[in-house]
Amino acid sequence: xxxxxxxxxxxxRLTVSQRIQHVILFTSTGLLIxxxxxxxxxxxxxxxxxxxxxxxxxxxxxxxxxxxxxxTLVCLYHMVYVVVSEEGxxxxxxxxxxxxxxxxxxxxxxxxxxxxxxRPKMDRFTYMEKLEYFSVYFGMFIVILTGTMMWxxxxxxxxxxxxxxxLHLGEATLAALAxxxxxxxxxxxxxxxxxxxxxxxxxxxxxxxxxEEHPLWLDRLEAEEATATAAATEKxxxxxxxx
Length: 243
Ligand code: HEM
Prior knowledge:
73% helix; binds protoporphyrin IX containing FE; mainly alpha; two-stranded antiparallel ribbon
């Protein structure tokens, strides 16, 4: 409740489980990008560290592997979560691509070019969010597979390892760019939430952003609430009748 007596409604965007999965995903991915791209450093830059260079590089490899295991575990956990738990199933259901996403994408581009007056009305996940989510599946599949191959290099012929290395580096570059360009611009520089969307901390999304970015989801939540209230009232009436 604000001081003006007008209720500022917020909605649950990310549950505790989703926030924990997200923290593990971004800390381990951050470490993987850092410790992975260190390998591309120039010799002279490494020499600046003198004899500490070797120690740093030893720990670089260890941290990359620990973070690799962490990211693998959280991915496996997530895949079970979206099948087994009610919360996860609802997440996946709302995330699945639909024909409407293609229409939304076209209309949103028209809006940005000034050919449409309003943005298309979107649901719980926008076509951009769906793209980002499924890109992570694809990317993680590639880096986990090829990273595991390089980790167990004695098992593979050289040609396979060369392919794995090229794919690993290519996907790592894509992922780093996707995160820097896509994610940072949509959830940090987005004028509605700048300097950052705090939903990843408190899980909440404001009514203002709901109306702007997810009006169809707001409609759905309100309809659910109305049904729940109606059911509760009916029960109350029944109880009174019984008494
Ligand atoms: C977002 C995730 C990841 C990123 C951004 C990333 C990044 C990188 C980069 C840039 C390299 C250097 C490649 C080259 O110079 O050709 C590398 C090497 C490597 N990565 Fe990853 N990686 C990721 C995930 C993983 C995972 C999940 C594993 C293990 C399961 C892993 C294991 C390795 C291994 C074994 C190497 C070979 C170099 C070394 O011994 O450290 N990586 N990674």
